[in-house]
Amino acid sequence: MLASHLFSGLLAFTLFSGVAVAQQQDHVNPWAPTELHNLAPIASLTDGVWMKGDLHVHSGHSKEASNNSVGHILSYANSIGFDYIAITDHDNHVLGDVAHNTWTDPDYKSGSPILLYGAEWTTTRGHGNVFSATSYDHQRLYDVRDQRDIVVGAVKKELGVHLSANHPSGKDHFGYSYDMVDSIEVWNSALWSKNANAIMIWDDMLSSGRKLTGRGGSDAHHGIPDTPEQATKNSAQAKYNYIGTPTTWVFAKERTRRAVIDALTNGRVSVSANPYAPRVEFYADLDQDGKMDIMMGDNAKATGKPVKFRVQLTGKAVLADATYTVKVVKDGNPFNTYTLMGKTPIAEFTDTPAERGRTFYRVTVEGPATPYPQVPESMKLSEPMVGLSNPIYFNFDPNF
Q: What pLDDT digit, counting tens, does each position of 122-164 carry?
């Protein structure tokens, strides 16, 4: 605990827990926060469309998947109203040659839902998902999987792909530098409780200045067998965790693969427990004129004046007679808790982001589980989580 300051010559002595620590009085930290003048303009809050999908799904091209063909995945995704989906098969199962396996599957066609190009980068140092609006040379990324991060990062940059850290804590955790990823899987599978450490890692990265999008992914491998004879020891998982548990929403400028990737990179993203659960939306009114100016994922310059924030739940599944609990996190720490009720539940709060230095806010929403009839057991695993937002940022350096 800070006890006192002692000055002697050019040295300043600060007493921490009885131990004097010396530092030069004229020391200036060259990395200290400075006023930013190069923040990107805020994109429109109305010129766009909310699109929902799943960013971590395995087809039969992943060897441990069962009865989950590409055609079945796309048909199922369409049946639950998905706008996009990413089939991310394990690249090590085909020695990196995703392009001549998953992508050449006759059913691998972009339509409804939009089908992203991707794969699960499966390495001894952990797993990551790759997302792209166009086909790319995934073999190159697979070939450098055991090289140093600087080599991997250079190849990733040359390919122009979005790299995301999968299930960052626990088995097959992401063991590479977070400086080369664009997003992090903060909600993996229906079992919400296992994601606590992933959320902690996310908050740590955000607090250190890394503007990383938080996303979800079901990591679904197993379909329901057409006959009992086709069942495997893992087939039962389909009743607990399947496509859409959880569901990731992106606010895209248009219904294209490029727009989905851009929205994911820019953090205009929220995650819901399943395809039918309410969507969490998070906005801020910078000048308190009653009009929302920015949304989750946006990065604004703090003025030293109060900002009004708004959290709202959207969707047919919102229960008018239910109570939802909003938990606000500021800079990785609990800030406040609010209650939402009514047919159009909205909660507002005001706070003043620091004029100098970084600040971020994000929210989680808890409440009654939303039924998912096709995956009936998933509700038990996700409850009480309804959804979560990405952060609203202030003074984050875009060149970090």
A: 999 999 999 999 999 999 999 999 999 999 999 999 999 999 9
52's enclosing H/E stretch is strand 49-57
Whether residue 324 lies inside any domain: the answer is: yes
Q: If DSSP codes are grouped into helix, strand and coil, which group holds residue 78?
A: helix
Three-state secondary-structure class, residue 98: helix
Give yes or no for a contact between 116 and 130, defined as CB atoms under 8 angstroms apart: no
Q: Which two tokens stand for residue 56?
A: 């971590």
Residues 5, 117, single domain; the answer is no
**What residue ranges of the chain have pLDDT lower than 50?**
1-9
User: pTM here?
Assistant: 0.92
277: CB partners within 8 A, 6+ apart = 247, 315, 317, 370, 386, 387
Closest to 391 (Cα-Cα) out of 311, 313, 337 = 311
Tell me: do 70 and 208 sit in the same domain.
Answer: yes
179 close to 190: Cβ distance less than 8 angstroms: no
As a whole number of angstroms, the distance between CA 182 and CA 196 comes to 20
Distance of alpha carbon 232 from alpha carbon 360, whole angstroms: 45
| Residue 304 φ/ψ, nearest 5 degrees | 85, 0
pLDDT at position 319 is 83
Residue environment code for 318-327, b if the CB has 16+ CB neighbours within 10 A, otherwise e? bbeebebebb
Phi first, then psi, for residue 59 (nearest 5°) are -100, -170
Specify if 37 maps to a domain.
no
Cα 210–chain centre separation: 13
